[in-house]
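Annex B.
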Amino acid sequence: MILMESNKLRWGLCYAIFISLTLSSLVRDLGVSAEGVNPHEAKQLRDEVREMFYHAFDGYMNNAFPLDELKPLSCQGEDTLGGYALTLIDSLDTLALLGDRESFTSSVQWIGKNLQFNINKTVSVFETTIRVLGGLLSAHLIASDCATGMRIPSYDNELLVLAEDLARRMLPAFDTPTGIPYGSVNLMYGITSTAGGGTLTLEFGVLSRLTNDPVFEQVAKNAVRGLWARRSTLDLVGAHINVFTGEWTQKDAGIGTSIDSFYEYLLKAYILFGDEEYLYIFQEAYGSAMHHLHKDPWYVEVNMDSGAIVWPVFNSLQAFWPGLQVLAGDVDPAIRTHTAFFSVWKRYGFTPEGFNLATLSVQYGQKSYPLRPELIESTYWLYKATRDPRYLDAGRDFVASLQYGAKCPCGYCHITDVELHKQEDHMESFFLAETVKYLWLLFDLAVDSDNLVDNGPYKYIFSTEGHLLPLTPQISLAREHCSYFGGYCPRNATKFEQSNDDHQVPEIELDHHSNIYPYHESFPVTGLIKGLCPRLSHAQKYGLSYVLPEKTEREDVKRPKPVITSRSIVLVSDQTVEKRPQEEGFTSESEPIMSISGGGSSSDQTGQELTLLESETDDKRVYSS
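alpha-1,2-Mannosidase: predicted structure tokens.
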């Protein structure tokens, strides 16, 4: 009882601090705000942001290319991901957005002729997907379409071919009992380690629709199901999970580090693909987050099982949330939260990686600002939704901070300490893919909105790396498919049977010669279902019941939720696969862990090796242990 009273007092104190900080920031913003940005200044700021992009892009091309990233203080380059011109790939659609046809064309042509992924490198599945795969797909969709105004006449789908090759090299990462992928994979040999990874649905889904091969969309969707199936009774997910046992190894639930883009991609996958299953999961996850994590206007981290607060910290990755709320149509709380988050920027000139809401100070060990775009991204979305000039004023502050605090001789530097504004010799590729892109879009929206995103031929969804994915008919129109499997079903491939609730449910029939699910014959299916689709009720189709750990009881859920006893669900064609004896290389001591969104920590390799054997006479790939 004493402990409970102590917790109540501690929470009361924290909440009072939250309110006081918010009120003080509001007073500060209202009392000493500078003169508002007028249309003429907005145009000047837009042009200044364009110059910022080229200062960094030219610095990379002149001093670092074809290495991955730029060291802007020493004007040198470094390989940080895979050694394949990462910053150039990440910058492609920003070049197109700025209307730089010459640089966009020459960059696409160089990548098409010189880039290859047959390299002995172990890379992050998450980072490689959002930065490289997403960059290639976005640039392909722009370069191949006359409607974008940036079509390259000589372009012959080179980037799409590279994207498909890269994604196939990452497929071994999904060979886990849960369907949740390893955090990293070796591009040549398929060796996997256990660093964070996970948000893949947009890039893999777009690739499936462009190549007519559903395998990519299926494995990515299966990973989402594997995570959501293991949610707590509060409909919360943790930060890190063991991809073999499905046990959560870090049960802190939040909207920031390691979880952020899990929420983001649920809503965006529904908008882009029209798949209602993603919408259902998002609604459940969002409602739970707003109930358990939202302490207006801030967000905290709680234990996913009990809901008890474990971490009263604002971390910089949370700043994407107001922008996501705008997409979801929940604008009022987005405005309040953005005001609170921006007050931290105003206080330091940048947002630190962590700001402690109990001590009102920078969290120890989290003083850096690595040029993150999330707060700028939310500012763009809120201005687009409200046209409130305060967001242009915020944009002006962002530009001033970057110009005076982060600008280096050859680009823009990480800030290692937001209190001292100490610079570090590194520039992430996402500075050009996202940070500058959202800033430019913000001011262009205030001037004339004459850009590919706001006045182009399509509506666009931004990936979590800021890459442009258009809602074209090829990508977004609903196909005849089994939505609860993510697999495509051709005409006459289904038959209807009467279920107990008198609801017509399709059952898929496959035979040995079926080619409607073009997996390689030897694709590993450990933990996957093959053969006939089991009959599912409407509730089961849209996520009301998934696999739950046997020890977990959902007694607090009022509506009945029948349980499917299978583990991960992916429909594959009939095939014969040799089962590996007792998962060689993995013992009870191995802890293959992944983060939900890929923004978390990494752990050591388990030692398991999956070798990718490529026959010179046969295009089929065989994965062997």
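The mean pLDDT is 77. Residues 2-31 form the longest helix (30 residues). Further annotation is deferred to the next reporting cycle.
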